[in-house]
Amino acid sequence: MSTLTIRQLDERTHARLRGRAAAHGRSVEAEVRAILDAAVDLPEENFLLALHATMAELGGVELPLRPRGDMPRPVELA
Q1: pTM (2 decimals)?
Q2: CA distance 21 to 15
């Protein structure tokens, strides 16, 4: 985790952040993290891990794997 310091934040902005945090039942710091996560479009939970957990609760899924019949192609590095 990284640390971010914001200097010279307008008092009105800080007051609005406090109000917003209180409305969401979290600290100002947690509210700012949520705002930043939403601004950079980071999901709160990894989609693939959530899908895996959901499927595990349902008993999982077995997918048939066919053996490979083709040979790998040679790679030209020059």
Answers
A1: 0.52
A2: 10
